[in-house]
Amino acid sequence: MSKRIEYIDTAKGILILMVVFGHIFPTGYAHDFVYTFHMPAFFIISGVLFNYSSTFKKSILEVLKSKIYTTIIPMLFFEIIGAVDYNIQNVTNQSIFGFMYNTLHLNMNHKATWFLITLFFGEMLFILIHRALHSIRYAEIAISTLCLFVSILLPTNNHWIVILAKVLFCEGMLFTGYYAYNFFQRKNSIITVGATIITAFVAFLNGSVGVSSMTINNPILFLLGAICGTYMVLQISNFIPETRLLQFIGKGTLTVLGTHYAVYEILMYFIPYNSIVFVLTVILEIPLIYAFDRFLPFLIGKPIKHKNTE
Questions:
Q1: C-beta of residue 42 within 8 angstroms of C-beta of residue 171
Q2: pTM of the entire structure?
Q3: Helices 60-67 and 113-133 meet at what angle, rounded to 10?
Q4: How many C-alpha atoms does 226 have within 13 Å on its Cβ side?
Q5: What secondary structure, in 3-state letters, does 10-36 show?
Q6: How do the pLDDT tens digits run along the chain, 310 residues long?
């Protein structure tokens, strides 16, 4: 495995732990700091890793099938988990049709699946724009930049407008990661310190934000925090020694995303201390990552591993 992939796995590990932290500790400055950049960072990293040359060789139908396998199937699986969790938490027996209605109307049963459906539509939009305009670079830059700024200016008083805003924001962040690849790869300790300080100030000034609801407060601060925070995490991941545990968690990001709610909600019934709940949730996610990767990879968008019989 290349160094680039290893440190990006580390970055994803850090970011998904921030997701868990932000859900268990829903208020305070640390929560605001994490939310300033952690979800935009996942979109930007997807852009950094995006292999357009291989995608370009496939038809749109083939690309669509691939994205359904890696994104929609996990989303549907986690939606089922969300439905079961809802019935247990609320001691109800809601009809399966009610949950299906929620999913079809993108009123997600599982709190985390908004990210997957947004990533699916955002990636498809990015691919379509890139395919149509890759030979007209300025037009592509203009349209993707427009998508980004429209996303942060749209009103948030309508469910479908918020979904559109998230998709446009995702496309803009994918575009940022793809075309600013060299910037995010550049190792510079001074810029890293500066990006960290800026992110900290943005979190203080801009307060509580969230991509899931497109609560962004100041649009300029929101974008500044997203980009600086992403750069900070990528470079910290590059500077720190190799950490196999973080890389393992980073590779299992999707499993953690889809299961940590159920894990920590159960723990909170028995443990009144959020810090202990956080530590135990992380510990319990490790065997879950292994189990899904080993026995149910198709449910988290990974290929089934076949034993070599030769």
A1: no
A2: 0.93
A3: 160
A4: 28
A5: HHHHHHHHHHHHHHHCCCCHHHHHHHC
A6: 344 478 899 999 999 999 999 999 999 999 999 999 999 999 999 999 887 667 777 888 998 999 999 999 999 999 998 888 887 777 666 778 888 888 989 989 888 899 999 999 999 999 999 888 877 889 989 999 999 999 999 999 999 999 999 999 999 999 999 989 888 988 899 999 999 999 999 999 999 999 999 999 999 999 999 999 999 999 999 888 878 899 999 999 999 999 999 899 899 999 999 999 999 999 999 999 999 999 999 999 887 765 554 4
